[in-house]
Amino acid sequence: MKIIILEKPVRYALLKEPLPPPPDCPDPDLYCQKNIF
Amino acid sequence: MKISRFAFSFEYNDGVVIFNTLNSAVVYLDKEAFDMLIKYCSNELRLDSAKLGRFNDILKALESFHILVPEEENENRTYRALTGEIKYSKSSLKYTILTTYDCNMSCTYCVQQEERKNVYMSEDTAHKVADWIIYNAKSSNCRLLVINYYGGEPLLNFNAIRILNDKLKDFCDEWNIKFMVRMITNGTLLSDRILDYLLDTNLHGIQITLDGPKDLHDKRRIFKDGSGSFDIVYGNIKKVVYRAPDVNVAVRMNLDKENYREIPRLLDLLVNDHLHDKVFISFGRIIPPLKCREIPPNMFAEKEFSKIFLWLIKECIKRGFPFSWSLKPTFVSCAAVCSNSLIIDPNGRFYKCLDMIQDEFCVGSINDGFNYRYYEWVSRDPLEYDVCRNCTLLPLCGGGCPRLAYYTKGTIHSPYCSSIKYYFKKFLKMYIDEKYKGRIGESSSTG
Q1: Span B367-425, pLDDT tens digits
Q2: Does the bond joining B152 to the residue before it have cis omega, within 30 degrees of 0?
Q3: pLDDT exceeds 90 at position B104
């Protein structure tokens, strides 16, 4: 019986690097502050 | 306790990976632990004392990660409250300013072609816009002011940029507010003089488009006389990267069926020139203009594009592009629904979406303030939509792109299931494969 913790929960006040932006928006930074790579 | 409605799970290496889309916690449970969890949640678990202790530790971990939540918790309310904190926070203000509708290029797929007018922001308007932003920054007590220049081609009206940057930087310095400048530019006008000025006034990020290797880029991103722009743009990307290593340079690749196959050749070029670890790559799907009711044959539909998107990410990983993103929720669909974000056009008129800059979508102006449409945008609430209320992925897409919701259903107050729905499971698996190579499947448990 095993659990492996891969990622701890984010602290909401520190949301800095969200998921990659949707590819439809001309400005991904309007969606989040970071691109994928 | 119950399993969170935001727990997204899938089988992985003889066990199950659970990802909480509300807080991005990820755990792996082996099959025995997962089966016990299911029985526990349906009150069918009977355990001897030896196993009970270990299983309790697992329950405790799952509870602290909100993968297990109290029966009485209404998680949509939790989502709404967290989303509200992002939507209505004004600790940072973000203004996208269109200095002109004009452009020195004539890209083959540009949706602004027909709407492009010879309109430039006047000096008087630039001063009024700066004053309006300063007024808002003072009254909201913000700590960060982000100005993002866009167009047309924003550098065609460098004079307006100079008025705005000078005034806003002075204000931010005086009020101890962090000031960041970003720009979306075609990259053809980045002279040394302009770059020096931008670096002096807090240039933080720049997005420049390359649509493929030279032969392909030069067929799509052309000057008005039909000549290609690759050499100039690529040279200027290198210039920014080497002269300003602290500036985030995003290389945007706008994709349709005519260029996507050749993107790996562009990636190879970036690797050969040692740029791959110095720029961010952003893949964009070219979408039809609002008035176009069907997706043209050369453009990708959402589901089709998700496959191309995953393929290109693999091509990047294969070539050693740094895999730096993390799995964090955005809660909202985009900045358009947030009260701290606004687009201001050369006439001082306000909009919420870069792809909806037409009179019927104007949400106000520096002279008149906001109209009712502004409140239509910031009140968009995906919990009003049946399909979102029960969707595990809601915190990752926030109800989807409002522009595409309008395009498909005639109103921004409707959901739009974006490509994330189609690629997310594979995307997450790829992320775990890449980041935790060999770690899942070890005999000892980890905490």
Answers
A1: 999 999 999 999 999 999 999 999 999 998 899 999 989 988 999 999 998 878 888 89
A2: yes
A3: yes
What are A15-32's pLDDT values in tens digits? Answer: 444 444 555 566 655 554
Taking CB atoms and an 8 Å cut-off, how many pairs form between chains A and B? Answer: 173
Report the range of poorest mean pLDDT among B119-133, B259-273, B276-290. B276-290
CB atoms closer than 10 angstroms to residue B390? 9
B30 interaction partners in chain A (CB closer than 8 Å): 1-3
Of A5, A12, A30, the CB nearest to B447: A5
Question: Which residue reads 């792996």 in tokens?
Answer: B28
Q: Chain A: nearest CA to B230, how far in angstroms?
A: 20
Q: Name residue B19's beta-bridge partners.
A: B8, B26
Query: How much is the mean pLDDT over chain B?
Result: 91
Residues in chain A closer than 8 A to B334 (CB atoms):
22, 25, 30-31
Query: ipTM more than 0.90?
Result: no
Q: For residue B93, what are the CA distances in angstroms to A15, B96, B147, B183?
A: 16, 10, 8, 16
For chain A, list residues whose CB is within 8 angstroms of any CB belonging to chain B: 1-10, 12, 15-32, 34-37
B8 — phi, psi (to 5°)? Answer: -105, 120
Burial of B388 (0-12, 13-18, 19+ CB in 10 A): buried
Cβ–Cβ of B205/A29 closer than 8 Å?
yes
A9 to B285: CB separation less than 8 angstroms, yes or no: no
Per-residue 3-state assignment (H helix, E strand, C coil) for B229-249: CHHHHHHHHHHHHHHCCCCEE
pLDDT at site B84 = 87
Residues of B in contact with A19 (CB under 8 A): 325, 327-330, 396, 420
